[in-house]
């Protein structure tokens, strides 16, 4: 998609060339892209006389490989690579109105022929429940599930009602031309001719590979020798070369994605949780030795086979983790991992209302949607949740794992959440000196009712010194507030500089259609991001096949997250790249750490 004449125009790159002159031999040539435009009907424009226009990289706002061009687009001279796959289905429990039960064949789907032979394949069927993708005339791809099929009033051909994965301006809640066909969230229903729908390319399984697969095609597992020395976290300078590629990371097995994504996020590069791995494994605890072997292999070889992880799952001693047909959640696994396997005390010491104290390994966000704006940041979610529940951290956490307000893939409170790369927990520490929100002096009071006040920067924790507390609550809109006195440590001077206590984001677990993936920040550089999927692809069927894990570099996350918070809040996920959109819309759990702290303190009664 090209930025052209104050608009965005889709096209096809026809040629690459070097442009400009080099002033010295050390200069780099600029790369030019010769582009043939696509008209409003998604066809290539007629050949123009003379040379095609040439653009620089700065003019290109979105790139889609030719092999992933949706089946419904008729691009001349471009063939779709790979084979037509089986359509993945998603069943939605919400009722549909007037839905046709027929199957619709996508007449535009292309057939794959294995080398050396010809054969005829049936076209790909689309029906209610099919996962599909649709490309608009601007070249932007949206994804969703077909909720209704039929012929709307005034139309002559079959149309599809698609519930999108995220909100898009101009869409409805299931109504088309004053007629309701199904019900979903506002701005999530798209109605298009069914010929515009293609099977979701993110979940297409190759039928050719399934037919020709046999057990001898399983790639040999690279040789690996155990070492008595523990491997350190992979440094930033080596992470990309070690991890990026296919058959990298941790190989998934049926329903193991939650565990694979968690292990990769925790142990690939974080220096804070490294102390956990360096804790000597008790020989009487085989499960600890297995985990140690998995982590060392990941850091040395960049790949862990599924069998190693399956052995670990069986040793966890619970059918939830070992049975293939059962699916678990990361928070359940994290608690067992730290408490039972690594014998680590709770990562968090929380002090709740009434002064009671308890430990926890993860922190669940609890709040009412009305307390937040349309697009919250992780910082605002944490502040609001802790203030509303009167929860404080008794000590500065070394590792903070925050679970977003959602329930698996079935429900999420917000369509997307803005990641906070740095988390300020200063005002959430119990019995710790805090500065006044207004003047910066030592705070003596805290007010929960001031939290959503739009005149006082909504979403920020409000604490005041004596003077500012009186002035703020003199206003008629705040006269009814009930500020609470803060526990101020003794011996701290009023004018003492108060340093901020912050934590850094190092991982994000995401879920989409019951499948977990993860993003990992592997170094201080803002562009040092990896995307990991333990089941990115599959060779063969469920019985004889194997999953293909993949790790991808995604420096575009650094560019996006480097924008001012105000711009991030107004960002439209539909106009971002695939991985940025997944990070914003699918986030399930955020992982933060304090690199200067250790979390290797053993549990009470444990070695």
UniProtKB/TrEMBL annotation:
Domain CAP-Gly residue range list: 150-193
GO molecular function: cysteine-type deubiquitinase activity; metal ion binding
Family: Belongs to the peptidase C19 family.
Keyword Cytoplasm in record: yes
Entry EC no(s): 3.4.19.12
A single Gene Ontology CC term: centrosome
Gene source species: Poecilia formosa
Name under which the protein is recorded: ubiquitinyl hydrolase 1
Keyword Zinc found: yes
Reaction(s) catalysed (UniProt annotation): Thiol-dependent hydrolysis of ester, thioester, amide, peptide and isopeptide bonds formed by the C-terminal Gly of ubiquitin (a 76-residue protein attached to proteins as an intracellular targeting signal)
Residue stretches of biased makeup (Polar residues): 95-111
Domain USP, chain residue ranges per copy: 248-595
Highest taxon listed in the record's lineage: Eukaryota
Transmembrane segments: none
GO BP annotation list: protein deubiquitination; proteolysis
Region: Disordered, residue numbers: 95-122
Keywords: Cytoplasm, Hydrolase, Metal-binding, Phosphoprotein, Protease, Thiol protease, Ubl conjugation pathway, Zinc
């Amino acid at each position: 998609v090209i930025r052209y004449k104050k608009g965005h125009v889709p096209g096809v790159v026809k040629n690459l060339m070097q442009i400009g002159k080099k002033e010295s031999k050390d200069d780099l040539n600029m790369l030019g892209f010769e582009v043939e435009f696509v008209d409003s009907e998604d066809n290539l424009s007629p050949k123009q006389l003379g040379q095609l226009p040439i653009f620089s990289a700065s003019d290109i706002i979105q790139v889609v490989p030719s092999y992933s061009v949706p089946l419904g687009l008729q691009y001349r001279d471009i063939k779709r690579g790979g084979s037509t796959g089986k359509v993945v289905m998603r069943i939605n429990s919400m009722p549909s109105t007037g839905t046709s039960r027929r199957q619709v064949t996508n007449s535009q789907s292309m057939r794959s022929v294995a080398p050396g032979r010809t054969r005829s394949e049936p076209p790909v069927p689309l029906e209610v429940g099919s996962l599909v993708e649709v490309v608009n005339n601007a070249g932007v791809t949206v994804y969703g599930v077909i909720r209704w099929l039929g012929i709307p009033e005034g139309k002559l051909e079959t149309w599809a009602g698609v519930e999108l994965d995220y909100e898009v301006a101009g869409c409805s809640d299931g109504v088309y031309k004053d007629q309701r066909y199904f019900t979903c969230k506002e701005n999530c229903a798209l109605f298009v001719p069914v010929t515009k729908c293609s099977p979701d390319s993110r979940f297409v399984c190759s039928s050719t590979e399934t037919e020709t697969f046999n057990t001898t095609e399983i790639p040999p597992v690279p040789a690996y020798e155990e070492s008595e020395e523990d491997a350190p976290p992979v440094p930033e300078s080596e992470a990309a070369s070690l991890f990026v590629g296919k058959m990298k990371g941790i190989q998934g097995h049926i329903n193991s994605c939650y565990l694979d994504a968690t292990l990769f996020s925790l142990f690939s590069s974080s220096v804070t949780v490294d102390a956990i791995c360096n804790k000597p494994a008790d020989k009487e605890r085989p499960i600890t030795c297995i985990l140690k072997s998995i982590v060392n292999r990941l850091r040395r070889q960049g790949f862990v086979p599924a069998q190693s992880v399956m052995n670990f799952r069986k040793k966890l001693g619970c059918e939830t983790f070992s049975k293939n047909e059962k699916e678990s959640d990361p928070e359940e696994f994290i608690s067992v991992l730290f408490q039972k396997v690594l014998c680590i005390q709770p990562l968090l010491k929380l002090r709740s209302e009434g002064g009671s104290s308890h430990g926890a390994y993860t922190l669940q966000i609890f709040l009412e949607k009305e307390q937040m704006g349309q697009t919250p940041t992780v910082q605002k979610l944490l502040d609001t949740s802790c203030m509303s529940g009167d929860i404080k951290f008794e000590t500065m956490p070394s590792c903070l794992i925050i679970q977003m307000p959602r329930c698996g893939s079935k429900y999420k409170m917000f369509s997307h959440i803005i990641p906070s790369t740095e988390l300020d927990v200063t005002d959430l520490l119990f019995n710790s000196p805090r500065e006044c929100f207004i003047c910066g002096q030592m705070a003596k009071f805290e007010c929960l009712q001031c939290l959503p006040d739009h005149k006082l920067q909504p979403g920020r924790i409000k604490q005041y010194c004596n003077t500012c507390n009186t002035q703020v609550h003199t206003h008629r809109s705040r006269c009814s507030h009930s500020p609470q006195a803060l526990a101020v440590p003794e011996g701290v001077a009023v004018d003492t500089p108060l340093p901020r206590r912050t934590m850094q984001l190092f991982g994000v677990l995401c879920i989409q259609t019951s499948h977990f993936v993860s993003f990992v920040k592997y170094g201080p550089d803002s562009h040092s991001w990896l995307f990991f999927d333990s089941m990115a692809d599959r060779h063969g069927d469920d019985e004889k096949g194997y999953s293909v894990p993949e790790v991808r570099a995604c420096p575009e996350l650094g560019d996006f997250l480097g924008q001012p918070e105000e711009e991030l809040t107004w960002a439209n996920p539909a106009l971002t790249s695939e991985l940025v959109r997944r990070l914003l819309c699918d986030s399930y759990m955020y992982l933060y750490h304090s690199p200067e702290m250790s979390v290797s303190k053993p549990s009470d009664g444990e070695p």
